[in-house]
């Protein structure tokens, strides 16, 4: 079982129809919107990969907004804002100043202090790591949004020298490495408080999926009793405290909070993701199963409605998981598996009829494409998101893929043809 809060589905849908009768989800993949669409059947989709649309220019006389748009990470450049305005849509995005303060790995420390939540012992350094910072350390660049490639584990003097040389001239966050389970709690700041939704085990740095120690590799939803006694409740409390502090800064909408849960049930705040996170796709399935409005809808109402009827419910845990499959070399993507539901037989992917996350059965998966034929890709760049009906990895600080998840990853990789060196 687990405890989550949200807007009751029937009341939420009624409010959405009133405030957002024309709503578009825009992203390079429909995966997150698709998990909400069964509850929001009028939701439209626009495939826009803003990270590849660097030459967009806002028209001198854009059309008057006739609808609303929501995007995965609108702060990642100006593409989401420009496309929405060009399409005659008002983009529902959080206040840029609040987003910048929360996303920055250094200024977010002030947010944690103001919220009264604990963090690992941390130093902010320019050029040198203090003598007091001994033992394994985690070094982060202040701008590390979306990828996790700006996070390094330092265990030797040589690694310390290498990271200082590579990131010379930058102000860095250095934290003591703490052994514990990486947990993400998904929330949404509204005008009447913070909605705290599902918990997930964040999968980071799995060698079969990435060569980067701090890179995000996926998530799996977890029940309250998967954590030490009292830890799940404290995770939710920390999320509410941080969310309320974000609200004081003018932030409204979906966010994620990355935490570290130690074996003795201590909960330490690591970083804030002031945007939708990939795991929200799974979270929305959990919300729908609990009779709650999906986060996409709550995010929309947070910007449009002065008050929301929020409820806390106990619900059955769904063992859903997902993995991010990245490119392992430079090249141009020529062929890949098509998006959709699959079953795996004898190491081969077999396409099935259309399916929903809540309808997935053991041995089945949903595949979403984040890169498309003709795209030039680099090592570590996302190619696919693979969603499974059960756990994808062991529930431990250094997770290992399950045998079944490993077979799925290998089968998906075999579908990829990359040209070039």
Ordered list of secondary-structure elements with their pairings:
Elements lengths: L1 E5 L2 H11 L3 E5 L3 H6 L7 E4 L19 E5 L7 H8 L2 E3 L4 H8 L3 H9 L6 E5 L10 E5 L9 E4 L2 H10 L4 E6 L4 E10 L2 E12 L11 E6 L9 H18 L4 E9 L5 E7 L6 H10 L5 H10 L6 E5 L5 E6 L4 E5 L4 E6 L2 E4 L12 E6 L6 E2 L4 E7 L14 H12 L2 E3 L2
Helix pairs in contact: 1-9, 5-7
Features:
globular; alpha+beta; four-stranded parallel beta sheet; D-amino Acid Aminotransferase, Chain A, domain 1; 3 domains; 24% helix; single chain; ATP-grasp_PylC-type; 10 helices; 421 residues
Explain the overall architecture:
Strand 4 (67-71), helix 3 and strand 5 (89-91) form a beta-alpha-beta unit. With 421 residues, the protein is of the alpha+beta class. Helix 1 (9-19) packs across helix 9 (295-304) and helix 5 (107-115) crosses helix 7 (231-248). The strands form 5 sheets. A 10-stranded antiparallel sheet has the order 14-13-10-11-12-16-22-20-18-19. The protein has helices at residues 9-19, 31-36, 79-86, 96-103, 107-115, 157-166, 231-248, 280-289, 295-304, 403-414, and strands spanning 2-6, 23-27, 44-47, 67-71, 89-91, 122-126, 137-141, 151-154, 171-176, 181-190, 193-204, 216-221, 253-261, 267-273, 311-315, 321-326, 331-335, 340-345, 348-351, 364-369, 376-377, 382-388, 417-419. It contains 10 helices and 23 strands. Helices cover 24% and strands 31% of the residues. The chain starts with a strand and ends with a strand. It comes from Lentzea jiangxiensis.
